Amino acid sequence: QVQLVESGGGLVQAGGSLRLSCAASGSIFSASTMGWYRRAPGKQRELVASITRDGSTNYADSVKGRFTVSRDNAKNTVYLQMNSLTPDDTAVYYCNALYKGYMTYWGQGTQVTVSS
Questions:
Q1: What is the 3-state secondary structure (H, E, C) of 11-30?
Q2: CA–CA gap between residue 53 and residue 24 (Å, rounded)
Q3: How far apart are alpha carbons 89 and 75 in whole angstroms?
């Protein structure tokens, strides 16, 4: 059984920063590609950033240069450092684990609200 628990969301003013964390239970974390997705009101869920088990990262164009994804395999935790936040970043952020290329797990989501 794999469980992903996000934390760190909240309300922040434009230009501010937040750091999201996702703690994973189970034994697959170090072998999984971990991703952060978000769903804004009225929009489809989109990939924000991902990091492979080897540390290769990928970012949506809209967050490049502002967000940084990282992982600590010893703590089974993935992070998303978000800087220079704008109201367009307001969304529910979800943690995802992709194992063996097809087994996928989701967290419950954490709300990020950026006020102007």
A1: EEECCCCEEEEEEECCCCHH
A2: 14
A3: 27
DSSP letters, 61-104, are TTTTTTEEEEEETTTTEEEEEE-S--GGG-EEEEEEEEETTTEE
Beta strand pairing call for 57-59 and 77-82: unpaired
What are 58's strand-pairing partners?
A: 50
In order along its 116 residues, the chain shows pLDDT tens digits of 789 999 999 999 999 999 999 999 988 898 999 999 999 999 999 999 999 999 999 999 999 999 999 999 999 999 999 999 999 999 999 999 999 989 999 999 999 999 99
The tokens for 32 are 């999984």
